[in-house]
Write a structure and sequence with these properties.
- The complex is a heterodimer of chains A (about 160) and B (about 325).
- Chain A is built from 3 helices and 9 strands.
- By secondary structure, chain A is mainly β.
- A 5-stranded parallel β-sheet of chain B has the order 7-6-5-8-9, covered by helices on one side.
- The radius of gyration of chain B is 19 Å and the shape is globular.
- In chain B, about 50% of the residues are buried.
- The chains are: A mainly beta (about 160), B alpha/beta (about 325).
- The structure holds zinc ion.
């Protein structure tokens, strides 16, 4: 990460807190406190033996405090990255191969997320025992259940279906 | 586009609505002309919530088209009570019937059910969600009495839980209408609905109020809904607001002589019976319009040679 020249907060002493990875994905510039939700939304809980490093509330130039998540041995798909945008809209994704960042991109909002969030409306058909996958359309400032049409603007992370 | 299901009034364009209303007017003029049109066709009625009126109106409409009905019966006596999912129920009844009518207490039920069936499915009310066939008969009644463009309409009562209100408000954004929403603060339109109305219209046509007097003189139509006592956590809160949203002959002195008063029924005490005899009252006519409008809708959805696709403005 020492060739990461558009900011300086990933270097030097902070780097010590979150070890470098050889091959995998670094999710940087996650809003402070959201790292565990990032793991949840990606379905990573460590039970599959994944090697994961998490830095929380690390000082940052761009965000006052940021979280950083490094997943060894796994390159995130675009779909996964898109879903991250719901809780980490400023995140940058670095794909690392042999200690080098080979790809770097920002997250982009998808139009729809399926099977990721559960609807908070107790009166929604998706909250019962129906064989239906949750589906939310993504708005500029929130998400909306495709079934009951409830709009959620805050605390989207709490709806993550884990 | 051609609609195979009727789930929400949001899916309907102005052209769609006009197609249905024009056809309903033809049907209304001579209901017997369609007496054999759907002989042998069966309509499945799935009412997971009691509704005598809507159910009977669909039943009448289907029989007047020459078809028959298969009725799931009450939830208490059905397999639903044994825990069968809605998804399973609709797939079973789809095997018996040529179209389905669904009333369900959960929001989004009709959307979900429509993903499991190939026959046309009509949403007859899903929780606090939508009730598009009611909206069609409301629009039909409004058009007959006051026209749909250059219209000022007041919609009053429980706007929070009133699915008929939400459906109607969406549909009216297709026309040149000014909509005034009148309710106690605790029963205002859900923010979702306000959001949608602003998306569909620029917002200029939508205003919220807590008192009828503010707008009554300017109204062409006043659509009244019931404020349900059970929505209030305590009786005192209910008593405080209830009286302000009831209308009688005295209230209407401030209204235009041409004001049309509507109500999806059943009413309790929102509209004094003395108004029934006046030219203002359109609520019984509104209820009767349910049959020709549903005949028109069913015929459009069940026929290969017809469809709801006015579509001129799509
Ligand atoms: Zn929902």
């Amino acid at each position: 990460m020492s060739n990461d020249h558009d900011h300086h907060d990933g270097n030097d002493d902070h780097e010590l807190r979150v070890s470098k990875i050889r091959d995998g994905t670094v999710i940087d510039h996650v809003h402070g406190g959201q790292a565990l939700n990032v793991l949840a939304i990606l379905g990573i809980d460590g039970t599959e033996g994944e090697e994961v490093s998490v830095g929380m509330n690390v000082p940052s130039d761009r965000l006052a405090r940021k979280d950083i998540v490094k997943v060894e041995g796994r390159e995130l798909s675009q779909d996964e990255v898109d879903v991250l945008s719901l809780i980490a809209p400023d995140a940058t994704i670095n794909i690392v191969r042999d200690y080098d960042v080979v790809e770097k991109h920002r997250v982009e909002s998808p139009d729809v997320v399926e099977g990721v969030l559960s609807c908070p409306n107790a009166g929604c058909i998706t909250t019962g025992d129906e064989p239906v996958t949750s589906r939310f359309s993504v708005l500029e400032d929130g998400v909306r259940c495709s079934y009951c049409e409830t709009i959620i603007r805050e605390e989207i992370a709490e709806l993550i279906d884990t | 586009m051609r609609h195979d299901h009727l789930i929400t009034s949001k899916q309907l364009s102005r052209g769609d609505i006009e197609t249905v209303l024009d056809y309903a007017a033809e049907v209304d003029a001579d209901p017997s002309a369609l007496a054999d049109r759907h002989a042998g066709t069966l309509l499945g009625l799935l009412f997971f919530e009691p509704s005598t009126r809507t159910k009977m109106s669909f039943e009448t409409a289907m029989k007047r088209l020459g078809g028959g009905i298969v009725d799931m019966g009450s939830v208490e006596s059905s397999s639903v009570k044994k825990g069968e999912t809605l998804a399973d129920t609709v797939q079973v009844i789809e095997g018996y019937a040529d179209a389905l009518v669904l009333r369900h207490p959960k929001q989004g039920a009709a959307t979900m059910a429509s993903e499991f069936v190939d026959v046309p499915l009509l949403n007859a009310g899903d929780g606090a969600g939508h009730h598009p066939t009611q909206t069609m008969l409301d629009l039909y009644t409004i058009r007959e009495n006051a026209g749909l463009d250059d219209l000022t309409i007041g919609i009053m009562g429980d706007l929070k839980y009133g699915r008929t209100v939400h459906s109607l408000a969406y549909a009216l954004t297709n026309f040149d209408t000014q909509q005034h929403f009148i309710s106690p603060e605790s029963l205002q339109l859900p923010r979702e609905v306000v959001y949608d109305l602003h998306q569909q219209q620029d917002g200029a046509g939508i205003k919220e109020h807590d008192a009828l007097e503010e707008v009554l003189p300017s109204l062409d139509v006043l659509y009244v809904t019931r404020i349900q006592r059970e929505r209030f956590p305590d009786e005192n809160e209910y008593q405080k607001v209830a009286g302000e949203y009831q209308i009688d002959a005295e209230t209407l002195e401030a209204a235009s002589d041409d004001l049309t008063v509507m109500h999806p029924l059943p009413r309790v005490d929102e509209i004094a019976p003395e108004i029934d005899e006046t030219d203002h009252a359109a609520y019984f006519e509104q209820a009767h319009n349910g049959v020709p409008v549903r005949m028109a809708l069913l015929d459009l959805l069940l026929s290969d040679d017809k469809s709801i696709e006015g579509g001129s403005d799509e």
